[in-house]
Structures are given as C-alpha cells and as structure tokens.
Amino acid sequence: MRIGGALGGDNPGDTLKRGSIAILSNSGGFTTTIAQYLRMAGWGTTTLVSSGKDVYIHYAAPEFAFALANDSRSKAAVLYAEPGGYYELDADFTKPVVACVVGRWKAKLTRAVGHAGAMAGGDDDAEAKERWFMEKFGVEGLYTPDNPVFSARGAVVTNIAHIPAALTAVMRANATLPDFEPEGSMDLKPWFGSNMGVALPEAIDLPVVDAIEPYRGQIRGLDRQLGTVFPRQSLKDASGASQMDPKTQVSSLHGVSMLQAAQKPLEANLGLALLREPAGANDQALIDVAIAAHVNLHGSAMLVAAEAAREAGNAPNAVLAAAVGIVGPRLLAPAQRFANGLVDALAAAGVRDATDEAFAVERIELGTDLTTDMLGDAPDPLATAMIRGVEARRARSLPLRWLLAQGGYPRADAVLAAIATTIGWGPLGRKRISRLSIQTLPSWLRLMATMLGASVAASAHEADTFCGIGRDTLIAECTLTEIAATALLGRRASADDLFAFRTLTGLLLTNGPGAISAQGAKGAVSADGPETPARVQLNKALLGFLSHTGFAHGGNGFEGVAFLLEQFADAELADPADPAHGLDLPAMAQRFATAYRAEKQRSKETGAPLRNIPCVNHPVFKDKPVNTDPRERFVREQLAARGQYNVFHDFYLALVQALHDEGVTRNVFCVNVDALIATLLLKLTWKSLRAGEIGTAELENAAFTAFLYGRMIGCAAEIDDHMNRGRNMDTRTPQSQVRFVA
After folding, report:
1. Phi, psi of 346 (to 5 degrees)
2. 468-497, pLDDT tens digit by residue?
C-alpha cells in the first residue's frame, strides 16, 4: 500500500507473489524492487508499505513493528531505511528482520537532499542507523556475500542486492525455508554482450543469457535482422557521417580523423565512407577490381557527355556532372537487384564470413529466375576481366564462388554485385551499415568509377586501354590510388608521387556537414525524400555535391596554381624537389608583400576591389599570432620525415610571414589545405609544364579535380548517411530564419 498510488509496478502480478515477508520502505520504487528480488530467491510477500521520507511519518517503523508482531501471515520483514529521523530507533521487533540502510554519502553534505535526509554531523545519519539495527540484531558488522554477518534476529545490509541472501541466511537460522522454489538469481545476466575481440579473465567475462519473454522473442528478431536500422531525424546542418572538431578545425569521417585518413589509400577510404570502417586488404583488392573495370568509358554516352562539357569550357565539376547525370537508376538497378538477392541467400544459408573458402556453395540458394538473370547466353568480356582480376589479386569472395559454380556466363552486373556483397557482408553482420547501404554498394562503385573516368579526356579512353594502361593490367594490378593518380597526372606515378597524392586526397574527404559540397549532397537527398529510399537518385545526389563545388570551394587550389605560376614565372627552377634550388624565397615573398601592400592602399583610396591571395587565411584561429592549419602542418611533417622537399610549399610559408612583416596582416595567416593541392600538384607536374608537355589550363583544371577526387568519397558518405537517417525535405530553412534584403 502507498497513499496516492499502488505498489508493484505496471504489472503487479509479475512482481508480487503471496508469501511470508512484509516490507517497509522509505522509497516507493525500491519497495517494488525489493519484492521482485525476494521473489527470485523464493520469498513471497504479505504486506508492503511505502512510508515515504517526510519529516513526519504517520505510519513508521514502530507502527510497522507492532503490526508485524500481530500478523500471523508474516514470518519476517525487510526494512529499507534512509538517513534522517529516529523512528527506527524506537521500533521493537519480535520477528526476524533484514534492514537495508543506505545513504552514507549524505553524511558529507551540508544540506539535506533527496528524501528529507540527515545533515552532516547529525546522529541520525546512515552509520547511526546501521549501529541501531546491529544492536537490535546482536551482530558486529554488515552482511555481505564475502562476509555474511547475521543472527537469528536479523542482519544489516547496505546494498539491496544483498537482501535476498541475507534473508535466506537469517531464516535458515530460524529453521525456516523459502516460500517456494527460487525463480531466478541475483547474478548479472546480460542479454547483450561483446568483448570487442578482447580476451577477458573468466571472472569478468560474463556469458550472454537468454532474456525473459517478451524480450527474448524481440532480441531474436533483432538477431535475424540484417544490418542496423538508424533512427530517422532532421539532418539539416547535422550528420551521422562527419563532424568537425571546432577547436582544431580537423574533421573526421565515421570517427576517423582526416589526419588518419591521409595515411590510408583511396580504396581504404572509400570503404570507410560506404562501410563506416576502413576497408581491409581483401576488400581493398575487390574495390580495386570493381573501379578498374568501370573507369574506362570508351564508347559510352557518359564519355560523350563529359567530353562535350569539357569542349564547351566547363570547369571539372560540371564535366563530371555531365557524365554522372546519365548513370541513372535504370542503369544501376540490375546490380542492386542481384546484390539484394545475394544478401537474402547468404543470410538464409547462415553465412558468417563472405570470404570463407571452406563454405559449401551448394548451401546458398537463390530463386531460379534471379539466378537465370545473373547469367548470359554468351561470355561477357567485362565480367570475364573482373573474374580474372579477382583471381590475379588472390582476393576471396564466397558470392563470386557461388556465381561461378552456377555454370553459364556471368553478367558484369552480377560479378559487380558479388564483389559488393562480399565487401559489405562483414559490416552488415556487425551492424555497422544498413541493408540499404549494402544494396546500393554496387551503384556506388559504378558511380565512383564513372566520375574518375570522366575526369580524363576522351583520348585517354581506348577500347583496351585507359591512360595507356591495358585493361587486363588495370583490372588485375592497379589500385584505386594508382588509377586516380594516373588520371590526374597523365602518367604512371612514382612511389613518392603516390604518397603525396594519397595524403592529399585523404585530407580532402570531408570538412564536416557544414561544407558547401556536403550541403549540396544532403539537400539533393532531402529533396528526393529519404523516408522512401527507393526514390533517392544516387547520381542526382552526386550532382548536388558537384554543383556545390566551384572556384571558391574546391577550385581555390586551381587559383593557387595560377598564383604560383605568376610568382615563379621568371625563376630559374629546374627541380622543385631540390632544396638547393638557389632561389631566395624570403626575398621573392617580400617583393610580393610590398607590392600587395601598395595595391591594398590604392584599393582603399579608389574603392576598387582588392584581389584575394589564394590558399591562405582559412581556417582562422583568433587571437593567435601565428595561424597554422593542422592539416598543412601534418603534411609538411609527413613529407619532411620522408626527406621530401617542395619549394612551392616553402614559398607559401615565407609569403604569409612576409605579409605580416609588411603590416598587410595583423597576424601570420595560415597556409591551408588548398595550398597543399596547388603546391603538391605543381611540384609533380613542373618538369612536364616546363617541357611544354602540358599547359597551364590543364594544370589548373587538375588542381580542381584533385579536390573532387577526395571530396566525392566524403560526399558519398554524406549521401548514404542522409538516405539512412534523414527525413523528407529536412534541409529546408524555416521561414522565421530567412530574410529579405532590399
């Protein structure tokens, strides 16, 4: 009983069972909890009283003790007591009692808290009440499982979990057994658990147990569920994929810092974007095969569209948009359908590891119609090349083994689906990704390859070669990083070139959900309506990303190249990687700073716009005399550790110092990540530029393209995340937050 409400929880029948123990508690919630604990140990209850803990308690311990003595049903009692008041001191118990006294921590307080508790220094605090009960029961200490102190009159505990064992011990001393067979135990019984691969000592390695119903059935349903399901919410200016550290201005993608991503190849980072964890060696090999197989756009409408856009003078983002706009849902549907069927079949067969070479493919069963659709009437050259590529790289794929065991001629879309299912199966099983993510994975591989291919002139796409590399070699040997570097530079890259390129693209994956490029991608998903994911057009979402890049966002490296070419136009520079270049960089920087100061003064006098110096002053760390972009510093240190030098990078560092020394800037501006694009790219192409093998226009376009290579991977992550989490039209700006400017 409790004045003002019933005890026993929402379902008293699940908690209260008739027995022989009465309960008096200062806490209503714990009254029910104690009854449940007693029931698990085989003790039922008679009368339960929640007295509350007001200053004046009208039915307190003395009244309860009198009722207990005169209640033939009750053989013993449990008391739950908190600090404050002397009611327990005055109680005279004639039957066994287990007293649980809590609140020792309150003795350190200088004011009452919680249930009208005792103040510091009072003689009715928790320790005082423990002593009262010990004297009543004739015991010298507290009851714990390790030190079971009790008598036939009772025991004192300070943890409600110890009440059942203490009561059983006290009642055994009174020759009394529990009311019924125990219904459980007080052991920790986790329904979920994972050691995350850590070997734990047996004492703390708790086994996962079956839950009680109805939770057991619900948990089994979750176990059968493939992948995770993300709760939907408005994702305006929010993301479950990326975030920026406001203090360091360094962003992360799925928990991986861009400084960490810069140390991984593109293929690992593509896995990070779409699988929410970096791709391992086997998955990287499969990603390489899929991209290499689709990067050559020879004879395709995508290449025609890209080349037409290029000839019309469009920037690289618009060129890629022309190509990717053609890769629509109908073109992507077959591979997605095959992947969906493979996921069902692998799950039904109980596949744990999609790379398991010992698993019998006969156990995997797809519907006859779907299997037939995955096979053609004649050999598919692209499918054959992909299969050979997987074999040459010694990559493992159970879905591909199953496909080959069906006989006939696998279609290229079926091979792509098998590769994608293999890559996504592990993260799906670990509930890192959703079923939607693995279903769309073949489309993402195709779209990434299309954008990569479209960034290269049509002349580099031939029937059997891409950028001069034979198709079989490309698919069997080249990594995504190597393919992208070759596409950007127009030649096979050296180990040092690949290191610089990998570092650069890793840094460029994301700058958080507030970046304009990410906003465009997310807005495109929001407009299609992610709550019906089938309506979201992946290629259109990429168009949103591409249309939200430009010469200020993405092309600033483009402008940086032009700026550096202007500064080094008259320089006798043979090798930008040679520290003994013979140039006086501080003097060059000083000349520009002096001229720029004069230009700035004229601008103030005439009101004419002042040109911006590209690649400096963002991010800004206020109140710091010297601003440094952590990403730029990271690259500088990485290259220095490898003994690599870049005169253009050195010039930029001299320039920001000279601008400050000349009084043009109040502090030393930072050299930002766009400068890394410009300086690294110019270093890699300087000799070809001086030899007349490439022109400045191609070089400036390459700077913009390098940004797109990194950011298209990061924006793929934003698109996938928004599809899984977002709501329809959630990126709209409320009317109350918009304004009209006259």
Report:
1. -65, -40
2. 999 999 999 999 999 999 999 989 999 999
CB neighbourhood size of 665 (10 A): 18
- Is 129 buried (19+), middle (13-18) or exposed (0-12) by CB count in 10 A? buried
* Rounded (10°) CA dihedral 381, 384, 388, 391: 160
Strand partners, 466: 461, 469
Q: What share of the chain is helix, strand, coil (3-state, %, to 5)?
A: 50, 5, 40
Q: Which residue has the tokens 């400050």?
A: 660
What is residue 20's DSSP assignment?
E
| Contacts (Cβ under 8 Å, ≥6 apart) of 189 | 209
CB neighbours of residue 46 within 10 Å: 18
Location of structure tokens 């066994």: 96
Counting DSSP H helices and E strands in the chain, the numbers are 29, 12
Q: What is the dihedral of CA 345, 213, 38, 190, to 10 degrees?
A: 20
CA gap 665, 219 in Å, rounded: 62
Distance, CA of 290 to CA of 424 (rounded, Å)? 14
What single string gives the DSSP state of each residue in 365-389? ---HHHHHHTEESS--HHHHHHHHH
Cis peptide before 442 (omega within 30 of 0): no
Q: Which amino acid is at 480?
A: L
Rounded to whole angstroms, the Cα distance separating 645 from 500 reads: 11
Q: What is the pLDDT of residues 633-673, one digit of tens each?
A: 999 999 999 999 999 999 999 999 999 999 999 899 999 88
Q: What is the pLDDT of residues 517-533, one digit of tens each?
A: 999 999 999 999 999 99
- The answer, as to whether pTM is greater than 0.70, is yes
Non-local CB neighbours of 339 within 8 Å, separated by 6+ positions: 417, 420, 421, 438, 439, 441, 442
- Reported as half-sphere exposure (CB side, CA atoms, 13 A), residue 564 has a value of 37
Are the C-beta atoms of 125 and 83 separated by less than 8 Å? yes
List the alpha helices (DSSP H) in 207-296: 215-224, 258-261, 266-275, 281-294
Residue reference for tokens 């920790």: 188
- How far apart CA 117 and CA 114 sit, in angstroms, is 6
Q: Phi and psi of 154, rounded to 5°?
A: 160, -170
Task: Tell me the CATH architecture of domain 12-173.
Answer: 3-Layer(aba) Sandwich (3.40)
